[in-house]
Amino acid sequence: MNTPLVLGIVVFAMSFAAVYYVNQNSATQFQFTPPYAFASGGDLVSVLNSLFFVFFFTLLFFGMGAPLALGIEGLKYASFYFAQAIPLFDLFYVLPQLIAAYSAVVLGTGALADFQGKASLFDYWKEGMKFFVAALALTAVLFLVRPFVSITF
Fold first, then answer.
1. What distances in angstroms separate CA 31 from CA 7, 22, 79, 89, 110, one per listed residue?
2. 34 near 53, Cβ under 8 Å?
């Protein structure tokens, strides 16, 4: 696993925990609005916006944007979950976002190696696109399963 992705997972968990702590210990609830169109109703456009945001924002900085992108997603999911705007099942949409972040890290590593003349981007293209298609497929499966699953705690 790559360092930016591991750091992104840590930042995601820390931002989720920070929102949990603030919302448990404060009279006013923290509500984060993501920098893209997102509706908490679970529509397909919002889910795909989240996935593409993580992928392109991570890819924008040659894979080094994963911690910031996943931190933003941690703030979003925690604030919507604790405001009871999304069900618990919607937190599973983080899994395809992690896969998309990994694919962007792979492609970003390949682009950086190509700029430095060490390798070609096409050496990394197959693996990166394989994981991105897997992220899209997992997103589709989760979206199709969502109406039939009710997870409450």
1. 24, 10, 5, 19, 37
2. yes
The answer to the question of residue 82 being in a domain is yes
Please tell me the total count of domains within the chain: 1
Residue 149 domain-assigned?
A: no
The answer to whether residue 151 is domain-embedded is no
Nearest to 135 by CA among 14, 5, 3, 4: 5
Residue indicated by tokens 């298609």: 133
Mind listing the pLDDT tens digit of every residue in the chain (153 residues)? Answer: 588 899 999 999 999 999 999 988 888 888 888 888 887 777 888 899 999 999 999 998 888 999 999 999 999 999 998 888 888 888 999 999 999 999 999 999 999 998 898 988 888 999 999 999 999 999 999 999 988 886 655
For residue 121, the enclosing domain spans 3-144
In a domain, 33, yes or no: yes
